[in-house]
Design goal:
By secondary structure, the chain is of the alpha/beta class. Helix content is 30%, strand content 17%. The structure holds iron/sulfur cluster (SF4).
Length: 696
């Protein structure tokens, strides 16, 4: 595609890579043209198929442009903004009056800009006074965040620029299929390997990413923690740990070592299915390289032991002395577009802006003083995402959803959907109807990505600017305006009266000053000048922090923490009744719940329906061939998929993507078992059986 004239530099609306794009101006009617921005140093001009087609969301015929309420027969009818907002505000106030402030729930999103995430958190705490706000990042990044906080004292997905991958001699990628989920990321692995580096991939599926690896570890689902402990066992046994680094920069190695010494290679081979020779090869490469790194994705994180699994990988890289060294260390590949910024600015049940903790008095006071409220009036910690959904229509009577499609993204949908349906009030703020709005009482149409200004923080911790390129249609409003409109009706409009997104950002800066995720030295102008600013950035003179942990970690003593972590069974393991693993993931054509990408013709046509990956051996046993209709059953539900027979998956495992809702929802099968620390549901492992097979 040729580069558009009058190009505006902005970013893709989808994933956390936040590829730089150039957009031609919207000249009225025609959709803006798009090309990759060759000067943005993350994607260097490359885009995936989602990015190339992202302008199709603008001017889309199914765009909702007027507020909608249900009529007496439950059908949508158009409404004036004032009528819809008056209705919502009155219901929220009535529920608060009758049932208490916590009976109103708020559900945010890792797709919201920093300004929106910040203001939504403030809206929940100040306008509604509810503790019950959480967001869909709890279904995405929470376990990696939990482990990094415990190990390093702070959580930034990649504590170094993605370009560091190019100079890493060895990269171990765990549970991350970047060839499909972050295609422009593959250029960095290609360069790394062109420089003589090695790529190791651990995954239950031989994914397109795994096919490009020098070493592939086809690990049994749910055993990554044992795999990491097994690698550290060998490193200790072969005396290739970095004793000087451990002594100088870490705490807790002795306790971790004592546990790891129970992970003899023979035991690990039995648990994980990875041979001892592969284990030794992988850890020797990691340990003896001058630079090496481990990068994790959702495959290792979305488990009931996700935090401990991630910490096991961190233990390994600390023991090898790699964290904080050039082109080395540990990082996690954040998924959602603003998955990083979305988790920093106060839409989590336990956090206030800047990663301040809602249960710490000093943190409450710092934020309350910026908000101009009494710290004692701020609610305490609320329920995490799944726990909040699980009490809908019980102790929580309403849900205000901004930018999230919980009716597809949540686990254990057979349990959650009836609760969503029975709510007294469900409000969805979005640009398009989705499976969640099917249950809603009110739909408030809002601007899309290219229709307003804002900032996002990409997977490197780089704060970037999203710019206005397209004129929004008449009718929708900014999410920021909607929050103001409702706050006004709830009697606190003065606390939400901002002139622009930049004006909100100015308050966000003050609310994060001195906090772990400190944005106080960042401005829209500095982002412009520097092509993004890495937080923490503490003053106007501070250029930001591309590389963290080079001298010290974020704990008060400056040291990183090992943590002794044990392999344990998943919430449910295969049994005689349900003998197979079921795991979920993504297609390159679709983004998360598919609410946007299923509406883009090119993407929808390329992947119309989810396919069930099944190994030929298992397929023969059940008389399944490609195209057969296979009903998969877990303890919670049955789902019929079209089969795709492939030797790329383990014979004991079935895989399906989770981008679809209704009867095609993979999350009907997944469970609501949570990680005890992060409250992350166990999306990546359910025990299932093949209930029936029909010819396709
Ligand atoms: Fe880049 Fe992600 Fe957008 Fe694809 S979806 S173009 S990888 S930001």
């Amino acid at each position: 595609m040729s580069q558009p004239e009058l190009a505006v530099r902005t970013h893709c609306p989808y994933c956390a890579f936040q590829c730089g794009i150039l957009m031609g101006e919207d000249l009225g009617g025609d959709r803006p043209r798009i090309s990759g921005d060759p000067h943005f140093p993350v994607n260097n001009g490359q885009l995936c198929v989602k990015g190339w087609s992202s302008a199709a969301l603008l001017g889309h015929p199914q765009r909702v442009t007027v507020p909608q309420l249900r009529d007496g027969r439950g059908r949508w009818r158009p409404a004036e903004w004032d009528e819809a907002l008056d209705f919502v505000a009155a219901k929220l106030a009535s529920i608060r009056e009758r049932c208490g402030a916590d009976a109103n729930g708020v559900f945010g999103s890792g797709a919201l800009t920093n300004e929106k995430a910040y203001l939504l958190g403030k809206f929940a705490r100040v306008a509604l006074g509810t503790a019950n706000i959480d967001y869909n990042g709890r279904f995405c990044m929470a376990s990696a965040a939990g482990a990094q906080n415990r190990a390093f004292g702070i959580d930034r997905g990649l504590p170094f620029p993605v370009a560091d991958v190019e100079r890493a001699e060895v990269v171990l990628l765990v549970g991350a299929n970047t060839a499909d989920t972050l295609p422009p990321m593959m250029q960095w692995f290609d360069r790394q390997r062109a420089n003589g580096g090695r790529l190791v991939v651990a995954d239950p599926r031989r994914t397109p990413t795994a096919r490009r690896a020098d070493l592939f570890l086809q690990v049994t689902p749910g055993t990554d923690l044992a795999l990491a402990n097994g690698l550290l066992y060998i490193a200790i046994e072969e005396h290739i740990v970095d004793g000087r680094y451990i002594a100088d920069r870490t705490n807790g190695f002795a306790a971790a070592r004592a546990v790891v010494l129970q992970y003899h290679p023979a035991r690990v081979e039995r648990l994980t299915g990875v041979s001892e020779s592969q284990l030794r090869q992988a850890v020797r490469w990691l340990a003896t390289a001058r630079s090496s790194m481990v990068l994790t994705g959702r495959g290792t994180e979305q488990h009931s032991k996700g935090v401990d699994s991630v910490h096991a990988w961190i233990n390994l890289m600390l023991a090898l002395g790699k964290v904080g060294k050039p082109h080395s260390g540990f990082g996690t590949l954040t998924g959602q577009g603003n998955g990083q910024g979305g988790r920093e600015h106060g839409q989590k049940a336990d956090q206030l802006p800047g990663y301040r903790l809602i249960e710490v008095d000093a943190h409450r006071e710092a934020v309350a003083s910026v908000w101009g409220v009494d710290a004692a009036s701020l609610p305490r910690k609320g329920k995490s995402a799944y726990e909040l959904l699980d009490v809908l229509s019980g102790e929580v009577k309403s849900l205000f959803v901004m930018g999230s499609n919980v009716a597809v993204a949540a686990p254990n949908l057979a349990r959650i959907l009836p609760k969503l349906q029975a709510l007294e009030l469900l409000v969805v703020c979005d640009a398009f109807h989705n499976e969640t709005s099917e249950h809603a009482h009110v739909f408030l149409p809002v601007y899309q990505w290219a229709e307003e200004e804002g900032t996002l923080t990409n997977l490197e911790g780089r704060v970037i600017r999203r710019r206005t390129v397209a004129r929004p249609p008449t009718g929708p409003r900014s999410d920021l305006r909607v929050l103001y409109d409702l706050a006004l009706r709830l009697g606190v409009g003065d606390k939400f009266a901002f002139r622009s997104a930049e004006h909100v950002f100015d308050e966000l800066k003050r609310a994060t000053a001195g906090a772990p995720a400190d944005y106080s030295g960042i401005s829209y102008a500095k982002i412009e000048r520097q092509d993004g600013v890495f937080w923490p950035c503490r003053s106007e003179d501070d250029p930001g922090t591309p590389r963290m942990f080079t001298e010290r970690f974020h704990h008060p003593d400056g040291r990183a923490n090992f943590f002794a972590v044990e392999h344990r069974e998943a919430g449910e393991e295969p049994s005689a009744e349900f003998p197979l693993f079921f795991t979920t993931g993504r297609y390159k054509e679709h983004y998360n719940s598919g609410a946007q990408t299923r509406g883009v013709g090119k993407l929808a046509n390329a992947q119309l329906l989810p396919r069930l990956e099944i190994h030929p051996r298992l397929a023969r046993r059940h008389r399944v061939s490609t195209g057969s209709r296979v009903t998969v059953e877990s303890r919670r539900a049955k789902v019929e998929f079209v089969a795709e027979v492939t030797a790329d998956i383990r014979p004991d495992t079935l895989f399906a993507p989770f981008h679809w809702g209704g009867r095609q929802a993979a999350n009907l099968l997944t469970s609501g078992v949570l990680d005890p620390t992060s409250r992350m549901p166990e999306f990546k492992l359910a025990a299932v059986r093949i209930a029936s097979v029909r010819d396709g």
